[in-house]
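Task 17 of the worksheet. Students: predict the tertiary structure of the chain below and write it out as structure tokens. Keep your answer in the requested format; marks are given for formatting as well as content.
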Amino acid sequence: MGARFQIGHANFVAYLTADHRDLAPRADAQALFEFLASLTGPGALISSTMGTPDDWTHHIGSAAEREMMAMDHQWGSSRVLSSAEVARRLDPLRTYFTGYELYAMVLPSGSWQQDTDSFRFFTEAAVSSHSKGLVLMPDYAHSSQLTEIVDPFPALQTLAENPVAPPAVVFWTRLKTSCVLPLREAQQFFRQDLLVALDSGLGQVDRALRFVAGRQRSKRILHLSDLHFGAKGSGRRRSWLKEHLTNELKTADRVVVTGDLFDNPKEPLRESFDEFRLDVENITRKDLLVIPGNHDVRSNGNAIGRFGRNSEYVTDLRWEPVVFDDDLQTAFFSFNSSETGNLARGAVGERQRLDRGVLYDREVRRRPEVAEFMKIALVHHHPYAYGSAPTALYERILAGLFGGEEQFIAFDEADAFMAWCAARGVSLVLHGHKHVPHLTTTTVEARGLRQHITVVGCGSTTGVDKKPMCYDIVTLDPETKRWNVLFYHDEKGDGSGFGLQNVSIDLRSQPAGRH
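Model answer:
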């Protein structure tokens, strides 16, 4: 059996294929309507039963059309549907998508002309697995942006945790075991192992997938921000945070904190952070990468002229302007955006940019191989304003939990900073300050080239001001220089549990960087 769909609808497909009764994903009404409509069109479904009285494709098309009519949807509506509303429309279709011993999602690369192998494998696997397997394939055209999926299901989480360049295939079973492989490896695995396993039942298929999944391991950067130790409630939440992060830290290859380590530049608060730092470093066996935020050097985060500043704490934070991580094959550029600016505003001056350029070039001269490293910039203030008019689904869901944009916290001359990043080949910027999780991908012109830069905001890891507790994980493949981002938050901030809220997956045909 086989079905084609848009990559933005992957979570609907994942929910339909889940035998267990997980919650349905939250979604745009427009997206759900478009997904149902796609199942009624010609060419979307493949089945060995086509043309028979018990045509699988006909049953699905009829059910999808009934649910479309029941939605009473106005075209273009941006209304966000609850999990229960989505389930009401998708549950009548689940009987046709569940009960298989193997599921596969083929992720093509480029256009139809550039990648015919993916479609060939889609049809081969859909037919040869007969009624024991369901093979899925999204459209060829992928956005220049990272693909964002809210409330991802386990197979999509596996894809996010393993930045594999398309064409690739995600395999999973209803027992929640999953793995992802490049297309050529997937073809060999399917033909030599999975077809044989299908004859032996679900248990054997699941064991085959577990064996492959056990060999996969991407690099992981744990991104924390805005701890605000000393702020109301942060002390109680710190214990819960440390307990939760223990498992994450065991698999983290690097941990970064993008500023506002404590709420005020006072000695006892710095000592609290130093204790937290020691706990992290004892588990990861690597130095914690930190940068200062406005609360680390200004009274209550604000200053006017020379009043309210306490710069001595910057030098005591043990932070380095440029760090080369040979294991991640990554160069980290660290900036103090709180060096200047009034109130809670910030900026990165020319002196800092020159200094990082000198340090980087010196290391390249000593070790030419580091010139090929991926480059990540760490800065506290957000280079792009966001929050007042959220567009991505994840941000609109969070809009009721977070406040809007405020002028006094802005990043002055952010264009100059981003231009420097583009000229230096930085492809990922991690920041804090806004207390709102965020991701945007932009293109910046530099030296006659176009540099794609992804900007990721963490939110507040301790959930200050009664906000959700947030962190994100960047998974990366140093060889291909691809990465994905997984966003986690504890909405109540009361220890009720962190959950994976959103993933941003790089399915672009060209890797991130210059074009």
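Marker's comment: The longest helix spans residues 234-251. The chain has a mean pLDDT of 85.
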